């Protein structure tokens, strides 16, 4: 009996030690451990504010020594939104399409700032003749995701002419994939039309000889819609408003730096995209892409509502939502 008591006591001590080391279930961080803040973004030019903030250490400067930063890279909006909903990331940049689609199904997501505008370009594979909008019928097009920002812009543009995808009874065939792979897919003939975010549109032009058939300022919502927005969760806003404010402060610093120092920002972009995708963009490609994008922390709420109405018309959304409560611009004031 005595040996059994000693053994049980040992087990209890061992369990306490495990919990103290963070191995036991439900363990919290130990005293002195820094809180980690995770920011997500995509490797395209609409997300340059995150790249610049990362490179210049703006988040670290704003958040102070009590927190440590981590960055996660995403190829498309669906996986980004899953990460936000599960708490894998705390905030980050995403297209308004995925944010609105998830909000409409009950996701706890808030748009807290703008990041960029423009940057969506539609290109036709070399040899594919597009003389009028009617020529898009029956073609195979590719976008980063179903119902993503670029997809909605493209389909809205053509819906006005009565051309829709097979998803809603039309003739256009739709594929999805990573923009960095579009050039290869065009060369292989797997797709006819690429709806590409910058800088990949500029890369496609140079590498494949593809022709721009709908410019960034011609495609629907091209000049008004935020191409990327800063989002977080309502829970984060409620529980850590000071942290959210500091994230926004860093984001605003990054946007200002981009507009004041475009050449340096372009160098940061080339470096970051090479590190995250393995592809090194040429300076000329980035300069071309830069002409098709604007950077701002402001949010155009009406443009977002108009975009959502179109998403509903195209049946990406089941119900026609009101996104007024989705936008929280209080941290910008």
TrEMBL record:
Localization terms from the record: Cell inner membrane; Periplasm
InterPro entries for the chain: ABC_SsuA_sub-bd (IPR010067), NrtA/CpmA_ABC-bd_dom (IPR044527), Solute-binding_3/MltF_N (IPR001638)
UniProt GO MF annotations: ATPase-coupled transmembrane transporter activity
Sequence ranges assigned to domain Solute-binding protein family 3/N-terminal in this UniProt record: 36-261
Record key words, sorted: Cell inner membrane, Cell membrane, Lipoprotein, Membrane, Palmitate, Signal, Transport
Domain of life of the native organism: Bacteria
Family matches, as SUPFAM superfamilies: Periplasmic binding protein-like II
GO cellular component, one term: periplasmic space
Signal sequence annotation: 1-19
Record-stated family: Belongs to the bacterial solute-binding protein SsuA/TauA family.
Protein name: ABC transporter substrate-binding protein
Species in which this protein is naturally found: Mesobacillus subterraneus
């Amino acid at each position: 009996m005595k040996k059994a008591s000693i053994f049980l006591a040992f087990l209890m001590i061992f369990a306490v030690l495990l919990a103290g080391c963070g191995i036991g279930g439900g363990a919290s961080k130990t005293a002195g451990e820094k809180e980690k803040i995770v920011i997500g973004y995509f490797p395209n030019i609409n997300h340059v504010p995150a790249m610049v903030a990362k490179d210049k250490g703006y988040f670290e400067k704003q958040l102070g020594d009590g927190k440590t930063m981590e960055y996660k890279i995403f190829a498309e909006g669906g996986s980004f939104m899953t990460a936000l909903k599960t708490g894998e990331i705390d905030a980050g940049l995403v297209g308004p399409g995925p944010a609105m689609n998830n909000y409409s199904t009950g996701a706890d997501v808030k748009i807290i700032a703008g990041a960029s505008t423009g940057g969506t370009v539609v290109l036709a594979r070399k040899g594919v003749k597009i003389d009028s909008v009617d020529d898009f019928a029956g073609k195979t097009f590719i976008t980063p995701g179903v119902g993503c920002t670029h997809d909605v812009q493209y389909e809205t543009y053509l819906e006005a002419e009565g051309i829709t995808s097979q998803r809603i009874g039309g003739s256009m065939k739709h594929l999805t994939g990573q923009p960095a792979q579009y050039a290869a897919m065009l060369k292989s003939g797997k797709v006819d039309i690429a709806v590409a975010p910058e800088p990949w549109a500029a890369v496609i032009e140079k590498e494949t000889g593809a022709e721009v058939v709908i410019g960034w300022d011609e495609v629907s919502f091209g000049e008004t819609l935020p191409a990327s927005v800063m989002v977080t969760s309502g829970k984060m806003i409620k529980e850590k408003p000071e942290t959210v404010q500091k994230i926004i402060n860093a984001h605003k610093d990054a946007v200002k730096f981009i507009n004041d120092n475009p050449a340096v920002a372009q160098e940061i972009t080339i470096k970051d995209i090479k590190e995250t995708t393995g592809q090194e963009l040429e300076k000329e490609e980035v300069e071309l892409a830069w002409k098709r994008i604007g950077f701002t922390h402001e949010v155009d709420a009406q443009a977002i509502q108009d975009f959502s109405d179109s998403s509903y018309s195209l049946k990406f959304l089941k119900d026609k939502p009101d996104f007024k409560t989705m936008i929280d611009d209080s941290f910008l004031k």
